[in-house]
Amino acid sequence: MRILFLTDNFPPEVNAPASRTHEHCREWVALGHEVTVITCAPNFPTGRVFPGYRNRLKQVETVDGIRVVRVWTYIAANSGFGRRVFDYLSFMFSASFAGLFGPRPDVVVGTSPQFFTACAAWFVGAVRRIPFVFELRDLWPESIKAVGAMGDSFAVRMLEKIELFLYRRSARVVSVTHSFRRNLAARGIDPGKIAVVTNGVDMKRFQPQQKDPALLASLGLTGKFVAGYIGTHGLAHGLETLLDAAAKLRDLPDGDDFRIVLLGDGAQKSALKARAQSAGLDNVVFIDSVAKDEVARYWALLDASIIHLRKTELFSTVIPSKLFECMGMGIPVLHGVAGESAEIVEREAVGIPFESDNAADLVEKLLRLARDAGLRTTLRENCREAATRYDRVAQAHLMLATLSEAAGRRRS
Question: pTM of the prediction?
Answer without folding.
Answer: 0.86
